[in-house]
Amino acid sequence: MIVKICGVRTVEAAEAAAASGADVVGMIFAPSPRLIDIATAQEIAEAIVHTTRNAAISVGSSTSAEGAYFKTQMQQVFGKGRKRPQLCGVFQNQPVEHILDVVSRVPLDLVQLHGNEPVELARQIPVPVIKVFHIDDGFDIDQAGELLQTDCHSIILLDTKVAGQQQQGGRGVSFDWTIARKLADRGVPFLMAGGLTPDNVQEAVQVGAPWGVDVSSGVETDKVKDKAKMMAFVDGARGGKGGLIIKNT
Predict the structure, then answer these.
(1) How far is the C-alpha of 181 from the C-alpha of 184, rounded, in Å?
(2) Three-state DSSP state, 86
(3) Measured distance CA(30)–CA(220) in Å, rounded
(4) Which of 37, 38, 52, 160 could form a disulfide with 175 if both were Cys (CB 3.0 to 4.6 A apart)?
(5) Is the pTM here over 0.85, yes or no?
């Protein structure tokens, strides 16, 4: 089970996320209360290179054509040989020039497009792309052609569509996990976000069957990343199995 802890704003939070077992540490470069500047992101990146993984990640199997493509992408990002958490920069409806500028200045392993960007934008980005698809009760997996497009983004992320909000994500609102299960039943790997917490992540995994989970506000106390909650979240997602440890190098 892949775990992404997003919205870190300090070196201390990033190191705590890695120590808890996170496979991806997310930093937000879009308008948000969790927005960080380039200098802080560079400091976080420097700290993360001093972490190491204590176990390889299994990304499962798939039988569908789309599933096979996204499984291969998952293996390339999270498979053997990865010695530390991956660094992800989150953007939302921002010019590609801005995204490329940040990528050139911060050593990101992944870029997450969290808005309504066309999936084709991913082709212009030199690192693998996580593309969000916002889910509400009317979302139809079978009609979501862009979601399964196999020549653009590398990783699918399902998150809640919050009505009336221009900026999506980090709202602590869940969607119907049975919608995600329909994608899982087609053999397509994906990450799942939206209102996940240490208390509900185990149920979310059981119902939605994602290959990974993504959390931000669910592991915060007073809008600050909480080490105990991060550890509890990872344990809940993995059934008590951690993934990374901090080592000084």
Answers:
(1) 5
(2) strand
(3) 19
(4) 160
(5) yes
